[in-house]
Amino acid sequence: MNCNKKEIHQKLMEQLVVQIQQAKHDWSLAKESRDSDTKSSAGDKYETGREMMQREMDKLSARVDISQQQLQKLKALDPLKSTDFVTHGSLIETNFETYYMAIGMGQMQIASETIYVISPESPLGTLLMGKRVGDTIELRGRQINIKQLS
Questions:
Q1: Total of domains in the chain
Q2: Does residue 85 form part of some domain?
Q3: Does 69 reside within a domain?
Q4: Alpha helices in the chain, H assignment, sequence order
Q5: Which of the 8 DSSP states describes residue 39?
Q6: Domain check: are 15 and 64 in the same one?
């Protein structure tokens, strides 16, 4: 592993803050669009447009809530803590990929390394929790061996 947990953790937090800011900005634009839409003689068209904007605002609001919850989960993790078994906040190097056990964010690039940020509740996360270096799990016919933990 070329990158460390602290670096991964920091990049994730920055990414979530940007997502929250973008969703809030998009929500404001949708609200402005909804509110500035003037009622025309075609009342149904006006109501449909307003409803579509309201739905978009609701989706953006939910995205903000989810991202803020994920940010709180990340803040609760100590990226400097190391354990002998996979737990929340573990950086796991396997014979296939490297995983950061935190939140479900998927693939991210740090320097030249690909890291998969997974949730403990995901199918892979559930199988990895509590495992140690040298342990092997099977997922979709693949034998995944834990080579290193930090």
A1: 2
A2: no
A3: yes
A4: 5-36, 43-75, 123-128
A5: P
A6: yes
